[in-house]
Amino acid sequence: MTPPISPEEYRRRAAGLQTAMAAEELEVLLVYSWKRGPVRYVSGYHPNYVANLALVVLPRQGEPELYIRFPFDLERARKESWIEAVKACGSPTRLVLDAAASLRRAGLEAGRIGLVTGDNVVDELPYSLYACLQQELPQVHLVEAGHLLRQARLQKSPAECALLRASAHLADAGAAAAEDVLQPGATEYEVVAAAEAAMRRLGAEAHLVVISSKGVTELVGPPENKRIEPGDNVILEIAVQRMGYTTQVARVFYAGGPTPAQREIYQASFRAYQAGVTACRPGSTCAEVAYAIREALDGGGYRGGLGAYLEQDMGHGIGIDLPEPPRIEPGDSTRLEPGMALVIHPAVRVPGVGGAFLGGTVLIGEDGSEAIHSIPESPSPGGA
User: Fold this and answer.
1) 57, 107, 135, 333: which has the highest count of C-beta atoms within 10 A?
2) Do residues 107 and 220 both lie within one domain?
3) Domain shared by 87 and 229, yes or no
4) What is the pLDDT of residues 317-327, one digit of tens each?
5) Does 86 reside within a domain?
6) What is the band of 301 on the pLDDT scale with cuts at 50, 70, 90?
7) Do 200 and 319 belong to one domain?
8) What total number of domains does the chain contain?
């Protein structure tokens, strides 16, 4: 079994953040989250109930504190987190009031305090709690500090990479289970249920499976009670979380086999995926990876190349959250470094002909990249 992140690694994360705080003259870092990963990254605790949330108080000097909402979750919080001081507050407002009181007792009611309130996908701190914090600590200068965690989270440790590989194994098992039931007459519900059941049996904590059984004309979305018909171009996207870490894989299947044009689109998309993986080298930029994908697609025989039929971004970072920075797009100049985790997934649709959404998670190593999903080079007669 893949071991979880150790308390020692969490302590190193906290120490790294404290060093970054000192460089920006922050006395305290307040890390708040509901469903996204900042609290989990710092503390190990995941507020996984619908109405749950949590706040980490990390001083520049000294030990952190963890405030959670529900008293019934204290046992789990103390088991999951390396932080010794864990308190249940009962309500979101009480969470802020208790944290502010702790800062006043520590003499930290003035100066610069950094706020991490979610990430660049969702800002999770309600204005009411922000206003409460300002009222309780009127002499404090609150500054946005999410960039400190974003920077720290870009490079994954060996332990994190091991958890990502374990997650990828589950995602591939889900795709294989979906392919086993994907045939004319099956519904989207049945295909997705097969994938979810396989991943749960293997230890998935959470999953997101979206599908389009009519991939020639429709984007992926939640499953519906649509029956798969002969000739359907089926697109499946799977994201699965294992021990806090998520991977994503995108696959294409054909009910009865692809047409020649669909086979061409599939193989061109696969070559573009491979080009992106190959371009993921230390020192390259995300923009250069995007260019390699686009160049591979533009080598097709369609007017303007298949790159003219790209439907979305070509990839993004991944780890505790889906997605994470950076983005695989022409405007992202982030330079790749060993330890980064990316999803490479070109998505192409030629209206009335076929669509392909192919790719998966890639780990950046010292000398290149490692694709950690099994994605076939060409579609088979009964599937992909």
Assistant:
1) 57
2) no
3) no
4) 999 999 999 99
5) yes
6) low
7) yes
8) 2
pLDDT at position 384 is: 47
Instruction: Flag whether 166 is in a domain.
Output: yes
Do 196 and 129 share a structural domain? no
E strand or H helix that includes residue 208:
strand 206-212
Domain final position from 120, 153, 186: 153
Please compute Rg for the chain using Cα positions: 23
How far apart are alpha carbons 43 and 11 in whole angstroms?
A: 9
CA separation, residue 203 to residues 2, 29, 197 (Å)? 11, 33, 10
Tens digits of residue pLDDT in 3-37: 899 999 999 999 999 999 999 999 999 999 999 99
C-alpha span between 176 and 155 (Å, rounded): 30
Q: How far apart are CA 236 and CA 194, in angstroms?
A: 12
Per-residue model confidence as pLDDT tens digits over 75-99: 999 999 999 999 999 999 999 999 9
Beta bridge partners, 33, equal 54
Q: Quick check: is 383 in a domain?
A: no
Could you give the maximum distance between any two Cα atoms of the chain, in Å?
A: 72
CA–CA distances in Å: residue 278 to residues 92, 121, 149, 300, 349: 46, 27, 28, 19, 23
Angle between helices 7-23 and 146-154 (to 10 degrees): 130
Residue 291's domain spans which residues? 158-371
Q: How far apart are CA 169 and CA 245, in angstroms?
A: 12
Domain boundary among 153, 168, 183: 153
| 254, 365: one domain | yes
Helix locations, the chain, DSSP H: 7-23, 38-43, 74-80, 92-105, 127-136, 146-154, 158-181, 188-201, 260-279, 286-298
- Name which of 292, 298, 337 is nearest 315 in CA terms: 292
Amino acid making up residue 197: A
pTM: 0.94
Handedness of CA 254, 260, 262, 263 (dihedral sign): positive
Retrieve residue 255's tokens: 């009910």
